[in-house]
């Protein structure tokens, strides 16, 4: 009986002393806990020295037709977004005028494209057409990301243009490959391309150039409008609609559905970093966005509006019939059997 | 006896445990987490984070009508120059989106304006309307240059607007007063405006605002299309044509005719513009020639070869003497009716 009393009294003592002890700790300072940080590559916080950014400056004397204030060349399409970013259509710009301003700046433009697994078969056609039609007359670096460097064919390049093959890992699912592109581009910019190029475009490899793609596309942050959704109301855009995803956009919001992006190397770096963070956030929550990184791209462009938009001429799908507003198709997909090449 | 021993033992045990933890507590004021590589990096943020980079302007959720690619807002006017600079007309932009983008950046805009001799009478109208309509809700510094600081009426300005009165010399000829503005602006940018403001605009004092002029005007180099000459072909534009003048533009060249009453841009671009224009003015004076429309001719030459990154439609400076056609849907800023002969001399 006395033992039981002793045990009781010791227990009571503990019950009183432990809260006092805890209170002492809490009173004296903040309780630190281990925050949940995502696995984060070291490069995300690197301070990068970018290749010198050159603003557009002097336009030398040149002869071209006078722009007239009341004479709009394209009355059938939207040429300015509500935030006053130009939408580049054929007829809205003068290539010689722009070339005369950009050529003296000695720019280097980078292109990234991913050729993983069977997609290496598209590299040849992509590069041959790019040599003839992409940024003709400028220095271009092609960065082809692949898991199979030997499969990349040797293509004859013009002087001032170079091909860099970037080896990367192949993931098992094509969705994973698609989403890891943001991380790969971001890492590559941090390690290599921020010192080599001024502007960077991130294109798909399974496409071909048909008409010139020139310096009218250069801008701080550039996005191309997806050819399948430029006429439909925003509730039909294939945004991610589940609110648990970081790429969620509600039904009554959204400007355009974007496909391809590019811009100043600095902006592309920040943009890919942001997209990769949101992709990781979704992974942590066990959800994958409807169109993988394209959904995250669109979410990001909704809250960080691009400074220039490219019309669907710049990223077209050949399976669609050509509407009258799209006067030229500059860059479009190659017909393929998805089942055959994806896995 | 036994009870006492147990109590004593229990007490010593408790004291030992508490002592152990207290010592740890004294040595470190918190439970420090195990050092992991990426925690020290400030850019690795916890899971949900919206504002990742100060260069991007993150927009809050807003609702507005969807822009449709096949439905242009205006088909009666040119909305983009051939070098892809937007031309700002009513109906083409959504000021809420622009305001949301601008607000995050904490910019300060400066406005330089000159009220010399009889032009002092326009100060009240200018400042009163600018206070209400010019970049309302955003920080603006008005730099008012005058030869008669005592005569400046006191006007109550909104809290984010400030007025600086700067004394300036007056000249006998009104043309000289007008042309020397470039030099004065250039000097002030170099001496202190580049530390005070991010964007600078030069405006005439003899104007009044009737509609909001907002952040759609903010860009690196901005020119306003003249309300007299927005429809004329380049060869009949009022460019200076005499090759002896530094402001000469040869026939066959020219985009638009820009008004010198309202131009601006980033502080560095305006510095380059005003320095180049005033250099032209000085060289012309040395050669005994004066350009047809004074500093406006020099401005037009500069903007022909250094294309503006944004153009403002004639809504942004409408000359009161003109009848306003329907394509000018809104008259935001317009000159005040005055007798030129009386006020200039």
TrEMBL record, chain A:
Ranges in a coiled coil: none
Swiss-Prot/TrEMBL keywords: Glycosyltransferase, Manganese, Membrane, Metal-binding, Signal-anchor, Transferase, Transmembrane, Transmembrane helix
List of catalytic residues: 294 (nucleophile)
Cell location: Membrane
Cofactor(s) named in the record: Mn(2+)
Membrane topology recorded in Swiss-Prot or TrEMBL: Single-pass type II membrane protein
Binding positions for an alpha-L-fucosyl-(1->2)-beta-D-galactosyl derivative per the UniProt entry: 226, 294, 317
CDD domains from the UniProt entry: Glyco_transf_6
Origin superkingdom: Eukaryota
Any single GO CC term annotated in Swiss-Prot or TrEMBL for this entry: Golgi apparatus
The protein's name: Globoside alpha-1,3-N-acetylgalactosaminyltransferase 1
Source organism of the structure: Mauremys mutica
